[in-house]
Amino acid sequence: MEAHRRALAVARSRRDREGETIALLNLGERLRVMGRLDEALEFLERACVLCEECDDRFCQARAWESTGSALRALDRNDEAARAQGQARGIFRALGVERADARWLRPPTPPGPPQCGSTHDGPPPSGPRLPAGMVGEGTGGHLPIQADRAEDGCGEQMEFREDILGAPYEAAELTLRPDDEGPVCATLVRRPVPGAERAVLYIHGYNDYFFQTNLADHYAALGFSFYALDLRKYGRSLRPHQSPNFVRDLAEYDEEIDEAVRIIREVDGHRQLLLNGHSTGGLIGALWAARRAGRGLVDGLFLNSPFLSMPAGPAVRTLGGPAVTALGRLAPTRVLPSALNPHYTHSLHKDHQGEWDFDLTLKRPESFPLYAGWLSAIHQGHRRLHRGLGIDVPVLLMASTRSISTTKWHSALHHADAVLRADDIAAQGPRLGRHVTIVRIKGGMHDLVLSGEAARTEVFAELDHWLAAYLDVEPVGEHA
User: Fold this and answer.
1) Residue 156 clears pLDDT 60, i.e. is over it
2) What is the CB neighbour count within 10 angstroms for residue 308?
3) 69 — pLDDT class (breaks 50, 70, 90)
4) 313 neighbors 226 (Cβ within 8 angstroms)
5) What is each CA distance from 49 to 11, 44, 59, 60, 158, in whole angstroms?
6) What's the rounded Cα separation, in Å, for the pair 325 and 329?
7) What is the pLDDT of residues 107-140, one digit of tens each?
8) How do beta strands 197-202 and 223-229 pair?
9) Secondary-structure breakdown of the chain: helix, strand, coil percentages, each rounded to the nearest 5
10) How many CB atoms lie within 10 A of CB 49?
11) How far is CA 317 from CA 226, 323, 334, 382, in A?
């Protein structure tokens, strides 16, 4: 919540109307989720006004829709109906009809920049960061020269204080635009002075980086910590984009390549570990296979990687070709999502968990599941099943059990509620010739967010593996 308030203050100080609108929407939606409905309405109604001033019809529809939801929760049903009618009317005018239309913004037509892309006063010094996502920071900014304009990355970028606050810094990586418009990723880092080792973390689906306990552990081992918020996720999601959407997992190679270049060539680390969770584990493994033989990465740690669909063999065999065909013909078709909202509830401190994170960036009900994205996952699995041939040591961890339930159950705290842990372990040998598989008793899907006993085992196993394969000296109780 405080991060959104900082982002709003930064946007207002820069007279960045687009950034202010994003921050107002984020604050309003966050407050609505928390049940602070009167406060939510203040921010959402201001967002409606700003969107109209900017003539951003899609953003205006989103604001009206959230306003309607807040009003309905207050039993102000007539006002709610009018607000949601406004949203539906705008969506229809934009030619967007389906139920999850607010996340399917039409491609931005060529033309003049949107309101907020220029300033009505002196421009801020340095490149513009997404005011709705990354804070201004109070200390000195750290410029990084990235002479990459010819392949879609910006010529210069800056690390500034991240939404998590010090010691985390973040920088926007400008990527090639797609048919929805401009695209970026966000590289977060927690530097360790003098460190020669670094780790790059890649999050999962419906996720972003917030796992500071993981960064703390790596820092104690002498690793500088880096994390990517991939395109259209978390800090990198923009109002004109369909969340989490890609047609091919290889699209992520662009931001991973650039992050690795910064870590090795700019920040000067000689050893790099890639740490991927869930979908990030699949993405990272496929990237490492495509980059085999180049010496870019020294090892992989995969935390419950998405190596197999959470369905029976018959469904996986018969459903794959159908999903692939649908993904080609109608990539933005929204499919039913099987993600259990109770998994997110089992993690968040405001529900049944112990962790604090932004429920507008990691949503209990998830974002829409697009046919094109699911087709990309199927294609990644087909590549895995042929064998990836990763040429560095791999540590794969998964829980000892999974759970499938549509209701709250205390077992959600002690099992993988997203994927089939046995299937993850079964696919492990296809990653490469040197794969270590460890099963964690009582582990949740994101193993580092498990209960204390399970996550202590995770970190102990990680330390032993790092000592054996990357010559990292353990510290503390795991030594």
Assistant:
1) no
2) 20
3) confident
4) no
5) 16, 9, 11, 8, 32
6) 6
7) 444 443 344 333 333 333 333 333 333 333 323 3
8) parallel
9) 45, 15, 40
10) 13
11) 37, 11, 21, 11
DSSP 61-75: HHHHHHHHHHHHHTT
Domains and CATH numbers, the chain: 2-97 (1.25.40.10), 142-478 (3.40.50.1820)
Q: Name 410's Cβ contacts closer than 8 Å, sequence gap at least 6.
A: none
- What angle separates helix 17-34 from helix 37-54, to the nearest 10 degrees? 160
Length of the chain: 479
One-letter identity of residue 83? A
Residue type, 377: I
**How many distinct helices (H) and strands (E) make up the chain?**
13, 12
Q: Which of 28, 41, 49, 42 is nearest to 74 (CA)?
A: 41
Instruction: Please state, in angstroms and as integers, the Cα–Cα distance from residue 201 to each residue in 112, 152, 260, 479, following that order.
Output: 37, 22, 11, 23
- What tokens were used for 319? 């459903």
**Any idea what the Cα angle at residue 235 is, between residues 258 and 204, rounded to 5°?**
75
365: phi then psi, degrees, rounded to nearest 5: -90, 5
- DSSP string over 59-120: HHHHHHHHHHHHHHHTT-HHHHHHHHHHHHHHHHHTT--STTGGG-PPPPPSSSPPTTSS-S
Instruction: Round to whole Å and give the CA distance between 8 and 46.
Output: 12
CA–centroid distance for 197 within its chain:
24
User: With contact defined as beta carbons under 8 Å apart, do 370 and 330 qualify?
Assistant: no
The H or E element containing residue 160 is strand 156-161
Strand, helix or coil at 20? helix
The reported pTM is 0.70
